[in-house]
Design goal:
The chain is mainly alpha-helical and 98 residues long. It has helices at 2-7, 34-44, 48-55, 59-63, 70-81. The N and C termini lie far apart (66 Å). It has a domain at 20-81. The protein is flat and about 55 Å long.
Length: 98
Amino acid sequence: MLRSALFRDLELVIDKNFKKIPIACPVCDILIVGITDHQVFREFECCEACKTQWAWPNKNEWSAGWRPSAKTVAEFRKNRISVPSYTMRGKNAYNKTN
């Protein structure tokens, strides 16, 4: 009975137009983070980086289903992963030899 008392004022709403956003970009397989990636995914079904790199410059082809080759994506992913997702601070943060 405790459960029914807790949830008696809740109403389940099912939105048939609801579109789930995956945890990772289906193109580059890098995590989708931030509101910008979410907004971009709704239109292009990829993260913002993939939109900028491939979807926007090839908008017509992208809309028709074109996607970059696995080799192209792997190179892009390698470069993107090498960029830090944080800011390093402090003495010798960038040059550990000093």
